[in-house]
Amino acid sequence: MKLSNYTTSVLKNFATINQNLVIKEGNTITTMSAMKNIVAKADVEETFPQEVAIYDLNEFLASMSLFTSPVLEFSENHVMITEENNSSNSLKYFYSDPSVVTSPSKMITMPSQEVTFTMSNDDLSKLKRAAGVIGAP
To answer: What confidence category does residue 97 fall into, taking pLDDT thresholds of 50, 70 and 90?
Structure first.
């Protein structure tokens, strides 16, 4: 399986919420912060064949970045990452025990939206830069 750019960006975003992740079988990825005050859910193009627990998502993403065009092959206790046109380049990444990984047990139902707005990427970048300058979170 090859991960799309969208799925990779979702995983990078989820790594900022929680460094560990459990990907359930199917095409929905969810995460929850360690303090259990942030929950995120994304539907992706790929369908994962089994449950995969990753203890350090940043390490997993860095492992994938070693390859120009990584292909993932899921096994019972690890995922084999290989180069698309050169299977001799490979890395075996072992899964974590799901019991040590924080993951949401059920999704919460959010109330209807009260406020809607649109912000451009340029404006968001300026806002982040300004927050960094003044030391605001």
So the answer is: confident
**Measured torsion, CA atoms of residues 108, 117, 112, 37, in degrees rounded to the nearest 10:** 20
Q: Which residue has the tokens 């203890």?
A: 55
Element (H or E) spanning 84, and its range? none
**Which residues contact residue 31 at a Cβ distance below 8 angstroms, ignoring those fewer than 6 apart?**
14, 17, 18, 21, 39, 40, 103, 104
Task: Answer whether 0.90 is exceeded by the pTM.
Answer: no
Q: CB–CB of 95/52 below 8 Å? A: yes
Q: Provide the pairing of β-strand 21-23 with 52-54.
A: antiparallel
